[in-house]
Amino acid sequence: MKAKKFVEKLMNAVFFFCGILAVGCVLLITVYMVASGLPAIREIGLGKFLFGQVWASTAKEPRFGILPFILTSVYGTAGATLLGVPVGLLTAVFLSKVAPKKLADRVRPAVDLLAGIPSVVYGLIGVSVLVPFIAKVFGLPKGTSLLAAMLVLSVMILPSIISVSETALRAVPPEYEEASLALGATPTETIFKVSIPAAKSGIAAGVVLGIGRAIGEAMAVMMVAGNVANMPALFDSVTFLTTAISKEMSYSSGLQRQALFSIALILFLFIMVINVVLNVALKGGKKGEK
Amino acid sequence: MKKIVSLGIVLSLAAALLAGCGGTDSSSGGAASGSAAAPTQAPASALSGSVGTNGSTSMEKVIGSLSEAFMSQNGDVKVTYDPTGSGTGIQAVVDGTTDIGLSSRALKDEEKANGLKETIVALDGIAIIVNKDNPVEDLTLEQIAGLATGAITNWSEVGGSDAEVVMEGREAGSGTRDGFESIVGVSDECKYANESTSTGAVIANVASNPNAIGYASLSAVDDTVKAITVEGVAASEETVLDGSYKIQRPFVFVTKEADALSAEAQAFFDFATGTAANDIITGAGAVPVAK
């Protein structure tokens, strides 16, 4: 009896420790990011850092303006979302409402596999297939561009949008749809006027999750975007917030290195905001279900 | 069945990934393999203490490999390296805050007059590479500068076909980029179309784009791209050594003329400038000068 109690207590301690570990990591990273990101911002000046249009970190008179990176990340993510959300949402509709069960059961594992493919593979296919294709179709001297990054990202965010949206669409009470059909609406009308609005908070959560993945992606983007610190243009070489950090980190020193941490801090804030939005979307969903 | 097919596709992709990585690795992993083959010198006596080096960021790879090999032979000696830049490194020797200053340019006369001594450890040769299909064979330094800064935007201006120039380069902070830009005289003025984070990636980009031009460490250039001649001279270890190939610069150890180095610093200095270090220097992508 005593031994049983001891084991219970021990396991409780283990569970508690594991729970604390994750929280501790988040806290540690937050503190570290703020502590290592602030000095350079203070030295450069917040306005110059956030709104400077020129990044020349190793020039004789270095300039650390990250506006090109911020805008590229925002445009790139927005573009990927615009391309990915319609496809993802309609795929989710197909899987949950339209497809025969047998077909859906085969498409779904493929979507899951898409989520499991490492980002470097997306980058590899992007650089060896997509980049030359873009160069050829648009008659450009080179294909590495914001467009290439958008296309790669739009495919990468599909799995999160599809699987979360599909779950949300399946959770729509069948009575809603039956009622709609009984009133004479066609199945398509029912999907767009009843099912999707009823599942909208879940779909929103999927979209936000996808945005989070897109804005945090570095490897695949680095391989197809060209990595020059230009202001964003669809067919130009561009640098995202993530790639700005990873491409210069290895040889950086002094203020340049500190500025890279500051970029990481800005990226971290972006992700934080996205997470808050995600939580709000999910909470909204729970209220809606009542 | 579907699952097995998709699994097969994933596996073949994984194989392609591995193959791709192997290709780029061979050029960037040179430093490690160079230093692994290093311990040829007899173990030195029981030296201890630390050797401070300070200066050129471009010399990071060479100094890293040299100090790694040196420390594996002399376990009690610690070689430190501060990547501050050539100017700072030279000043640190004057101030006496470091043992050996590292400079990726020759000393100026007034610096020598200040009581400093330069010893060339290695030469850094940078090859200019174009796609194999590019008819251009030779460029002058001015033409290269023009191509890099965007003053020349079409290959026909330098005797090539009528196509837009795509300038490939390295990221800010890279020693090769710093070397290329400072030798050609286009520091901070280059208009790159792509910036890659490794020499291998630059070579791969040039190999896949018929209109691309780029630069790469001499030791990394392979036959997937064409290294052009600069003012009539082909890039090779010999032409770098005899000085006829223009795009090169010295890696210099800076010491004080008057003061002797500490025993451990002298040991490192002798090791780095001796013939035993040649393989290490080659492995780090530079051309050794010791005979």
TrEMBL record, chain B:
Sequence segments annotated as region (Disordered): 29-54
Entry keyword Signal: yes
Keyword Thylakoid recorded: no
Extent of Low complexity compositional bias: 29-46
Membrane topology, from the record: Lipid-anchor
Gene Ontology cellular component list: plasma membrane
Alphabetical list of InterPro entries matching this protein: PBP_domain, Phos-bd, Phosphate_ABC_transporter
All residue ranges annotated as the PBP domain in the record: 41-273
First and last residue of the signal peptide: 1-19
Pfam families linked: PBP_like_2 (PF12849)
Family: Belongs to the PstS family.
Complex and partners: The complex is composed of two ATP-binding proteins (PstB), two transmembrane proteins (PstC and PstA) and a solute-binding protein (PstS).
Protein name in UniProt: Phosphate-binding protein
